[in-house]
Write a structure and sequence with these properties.
Blueprint: H1 14-17, E1 21-29, E2 31-38, E3 44-53, E4 58-66, H2 68-75, H3 81-87, E5 91-97, E6 102-108, E7 135-141, H4 152-171, E8 178-189, E9 192-202, H5 216-229, H6 247-262, H7 271-290, E10 299-306, E11 309-316, H8 318-336, E12 338-340, E13 345-355, E14 360-366, E15 374-375, E16 378-381, H9 391-397, E17 402-411, E18 414-420
Parallel strand pairs: 16-18
Antiparallel strand pairs: 1-2, 2-3, 3-4, 4-5, 5-6, 7-9, 7-10, 8-9, 10-11, 12-17, 13-14, 13-17, 14-15, 14-16, 17-18
């Protein structure tokens, strides 16, 4: 323990780094070697064993506070424990007694950790046996969410969007005769959490006795992981009706085959192509979830819930949002073509986000061929005149629909961008 010079280190408040909930051991060897959990504030914490002293009956461990993104990346094998520590701004040495009760906590930086105590380069999350369920949570983080609040309209859109996403995936299972119904559970803290349970019932009186054996929950959870982690990388595969499959898409197809085989239901013809078509359909639904990120909360985590423990499936922030939406747009342009106005045209819009310094933002506009559906294009207002006390800020602050002259960029029926001519 001398290597850490604890007497020279800044003492921290124990409750900031102590795990009080969601404790899970990832690797065990006499002592918990690697584990995760949350502190009293709901922050994700990863901890690891350093050494023990039988004379003083104390244990030294390393605790680091993780962002939701870091937690998702580590649990899904995207980043090593070594890289987590290297990039962490919150590392502490935690001293515990032999009952694993926290005694003291000390601040430490990565460069002060002796090299013999650092994890290896390939210190990725150990493979753990995972089960699956049809219970999910979406946890919002940042801004209003950090004080356990959210804008009702945004929550409603997330609820409806994820409900449609889940129910559509069940309805796409041809021949299963299932009636899906996504049930909302009470909101919980952390920072603002929306809870769902997908209830499945069979149509008709005589149900399929083998359906309970079908790994539907595994398929849905793997589907969410694929759409959030691999779809952007696979975008070229979806531009044409071909039989090209990535390893990740093939694995999802294998799980889908398993659903049919274990339910003793004949697989649909061209099941691979049907899966690709369904993923494209689902990407549009999933895009609606990504559109909510950024204004009143900074990120959203989709988790699978098993016995009150959460397994991260997807992490959505502004970077993900931009990459995902541009990939969907790129595929749609390839399939439907791009239409750009040559001249300014009159459009009726409702601006819901506007940065008056950059003159950029977002607006609602009804789709050209279906006014019951709306697009949310990016907008750019020309000129350098101040926007205060103009119809543009009135639209924003007074929730007014306004008429503008703009050049639109459309993919199919959906508006993607409006270049607006400034008017007094």
């Amino acid at each position: 323990m001398k290597e850490f010079n604890l007497y020279e280190r800044l003492l921290l408040k124990k409750d900031l780094v102590e795990i009080v909930e969601n404790y899970q051991i990832l690797h065990f060897d006499d002592f918990p070697i690697l584990y995760i959990g949350t502190n009293r504030l709901g922050n994700k914490i990863i901890g690891s064993h350093l050494e023990e002293d039988d004379q003083t009956k104390t244990i030294l461990t390393l605790h680091s506070i993780l962002s939701n993104k870091e937690f998702h990346q580590f649990m899904n094998g995207k980043i090593s424990y070594l890289d987590l520590l290297r990039n962490s701004k919150s590392i502490s040495i935690v001293e515990k007694d032999y009952s694993f009760k926290v005694v003291k906590a000390y601040d430490i930086d990565f460069n002060s950790i002796p090299s013999d105590y650092l994890p290896l380069k390939n210190s990725f999350c150990p493979s753990i046996i995972k089960t699956h369920s049809l219970i999910f949570s979406i946890s919002l983080k940042g801004k209003l969410a950090d004080v356990n609040k959210a804008v009702a309209d945004e929550v409603s859109k997330i609820q409806n969007g994820f409900t449609e996403f889940l129910e559509d995936r069940i309805n796409s299972l041809k021949g299963m005769n299932l009636l899906p119904k996504a049930m909302l559970q009470p909101y919980t803290e952390g920072s603002f959490k929306i809870n769902f349970e997908l209830d499945l019932k069979q149509k008709g009186v005589n149900g399929n006795l083998f359906l309970q054996q079908a790994p539907i929950s595994k398929y849905i959870t793997n589907y969410i992981k694929y759409i959030s982690e691999s779809f952007v990388e696979d975008k070229e595969i979806f531009k044409n009706d071909n039989t090209n499959f990535s390893n990740e898409l093939s694995q999802l197809e294998n799980t889908l085959n398993e659903v049919y085989d274990k339910a003793y239901i004949q697989r649909p013809e061209n099941i691979g192509l049907s899966l690709k078509e369904d993923i494209l359909k689902s990407a549009v639904r999933f895009e609606k979830l990504t559109e909510q990120v950024g204004v009143n909360f900074e990120s959203a985590s989709i988790n699978n819930v098993i016995d009150n423990e959460e397994t991260p499936l997807a992490f959505i922030d502004e970077d993900f949002n931009q990459n995902f939406q541009s990939s969907v747009e790129e595929i749609e342009i390839h399939k439907k073509g791009l239409i750009v106005d040559e001249n300014f045209k009159e459009y009726k819009i409702y601006i819901y986000h506007l940065n008056t310094d950059t003159r950029t933002g977002n607006a609602f506009i009804k789709n050209s061929n279906n006014e019951e559906e709306m697009s949310k294009p990016k907008i750019k207002i020309q000129g350098d005149e101040g926007l205060e006390k103009t119809k543009y800020t009135e639209s924003l602050y007074m929730s007014k629909w306004i008429t503008v002259n703009a050049k639109a960029k459309k993919v199919g029926d959906k508006f993607k961008q409006l270049n607006i001519q400034y008017e007094n």
